[in-house]
Amino acid sequence: MNRRRISVSLLLFFLVAGGCAHETATPQPREAMRLDPGEALARLERRPLERRLLKAMAEIAVITETGRHPLRLAILARRPDSLRIEAIPALGPPNFFLAAHDGRLAAYLPETGEYLAGPAVPENLARFFPLSLSVGDLISLLMGNPPAWPTEEAPRVDAVAEAGMLRLDISSRDRRFRQTLWIDEKTGYPRRCEQTAERDGGTETLNVYFDAYAPVDGAPMPRRIRVKVKGGDQEERTVVLEYESATLETTSDAGAGPFDLPVPPGATVRRLE
């Protein structure tokens, strides 16, 4: 699978327990969900976003050991790999322009007059955006979905009921790549994703929290996304994104269009390896 696409009762329990302190409650073990793993994963395919164009303005805070760094972005995104981001300062023109489409990435830095272009790999995206992700995974997060399963190999999936959530424990056969998803049982919306990848450079951990769901043009989307990353060649950081505005437009265009960033006149062109 490439892309795949509770507690009132707890409150009642504590009220009753408070009035019957002489009785000792016996903890109940967690109960495994009686769902086929494929059916559980299919719950994530809750809205048809393959041909939706996300247009949004967002406030971002990048939190590191050195402090909190705010950023305001204009975002344009379309699955599977088309992305445009402009950093908007309080005054003046954008700080940078970034565009990716069909495996290529380009960025223009007006302050220095540099135009950089190369393959749309996580290392190049991380030069301009504070997360080392593939373009496709970043688009998934922006639209409120977990990152896609990274290989053609069918994963191992265990489903467990956990405090109002359906927890899916997903792993590769060699367990070098693991993903845990928490899905709200009432709505079917993903609320959290924890992903661990063991690579030659060590272990990389990604934690994503999806909050403040609201309808956007008929599709439920989180208006607040919090991402925590640790490991690899990046310092530990948290990125909090909150949408000021967002629209989802239906489109049949699969071309580059607004995701094409031509070289501005007079720019110094550099290649990203």
Characterization of this structure:
The chain has 273 residues and is mainly β. It has one domain: outer membrane lipoprotein receptor (LolB), chain A (Clam), CATH 2.50.20. It has four helices and 14 strands. A 14-stranded mixed beta sheet has the order 7-8-9-10-11-12-13-1-2-3-4-5-6-14. It starts with 7 loop residues before the first helix and ends with a strand.
List the topology elements:
Elements: H1 8-19, H2 37-42, E1 52-64, E2 67-78, E3 82-87, E4 96-101, E5 104-109, E6 114-119, H3 122-125, H4 135-142, E7 156-162, E8 165-171, E9 177-184, E10 190-199, E11 202-216, E12 219-231, E13 234-250, E14 268-271
Parallel strand pairs: 6-14
Antiparallel strand pairs: 1-2, 1-13, 2-3, 3-4, 4-5, 5-6, 7-8, 8-9, 9-10, 10-11, 11-12, 12-13
Write out key terms for the chains shown:
273 residues, mainly beta, 14-stranded mixed beta sheet, 4 helices
